[in-house]
Amino acid sequence: MGHGGGGALSAELTRHLFLPAYGGEALEGLTDSAAVTLGGARLAFSTDSYVVRPLFFPGGSIGDLAVNGTVNDLAMSGAVPAYLSCAFILEEGTELSTVGRVAQALGAAARAADVTVVTGDTKVVDSGHGDGVYVNTAGIGLIPEGVDIRPRRARPGDAVIVSGPIGQHGIAILSVREGLTFGTELVSDTAPLAGLVRAMLAVTPDIHVLRDPTRGGLAAALNEIATASGTGVALDEAAVPVPDAVATACALLGLDPMYMANEGRLVAFVARTHAEMVLEAMRAHPLGHEATVIGVCVAEHPGMVVARTGLGGTRIVDPPLGEQLPRIC
């Protein structure tokens, strides 16, 4: 299960098994979506599979995630998402009404994200060999001219910005899965981020890095960027926005919000000269109105993420080994 968690084990599996098997220059960047050229057009292309349990949770469902997750992967390359494919893998005995609810949620999410599902597939596996519904989506979108967003472009001096409070999706899944209550209903943050990215690019096309911190949370995303770019990241832990309910739940369960999954947040590395304008544009957008600067990219401690704590000390934010909570997307 740890190999599917988006942490060190996932990276090991990718680098030492899949990359040698597949080869190809386009894979080397290990970005959320590949930037490829076809007929003179620069395209972003991404695929993802969704196995979340339960299928429906506060604030969303596997149908929403299947659209938003792929749309967001495309948006992290600066692309304007356009088309999706969708494949359903169904377990024998799953109620058609359940499949219908997932399909309706997926269609509504696609319309909200302004993308079109244009092709698909359906498979059924024997009872006991699945878990109701699994969904795979792939997406393509156009990358505007002059946009070059990838982890290796992080530079010392870049402001590190997060678009809003972290940890809501992971804790929402945990609460419904385990039947836990924390004094208030926790709702997933699942949302399509392409519109927010367009607002940011309208300020400057020279955004260095974008990443949506899904599996492995903010810690995994920042460590991946630091490793890819050969830079360090210095965080102000007190500046990282953590909702009270998420902080309470993590404290009770011995979890760290930095490692909790998000499905409607992004982290951006932006040159200092553009940071204030980009932050202002983010805060003017509904999905970025709580955006804040949480740190800076530095030349020191390359490949490492270090956080300044509230007590004035520092701690290393290690990449997660596996996943605190499996099957959250």
UniProtKB/TrEMBL annotation:
Transmembrane segment boundaries: none
Gene3D superfamilies according to UniProt: PurM-like C-terminal domain, PurM-like, N-terminal domain
CDD domains: HypE
Domain PurM-like C-terminal, chain residue ranges per copy: 155-301
Record domain PurM-like N-terminal: where: 32-143
InterPro entries cross-referenced by the UniProt entry: HypE, PurM-like_C_dom, PurM-like_C_sf, PurM-like_N, PurM-like_N_sf
UniProt cross-references to SUPFAM superfamilies, sorted A to Z: PurM C-terminal domain-like, PurM N-terminal domain-like
Pfam families referenced in this protein's UniProt entry, alphabetically: AIRS, AIRS_C
Biological process annotations from GO: protein maturation
NCBIfam families, per database record: hypE (TIGR02124)
Entry's family note: Belongs to the HypE family.
Protein name (record): Hydrogenase expression/formation protein HypE
Gene that specifies this protein: hypE
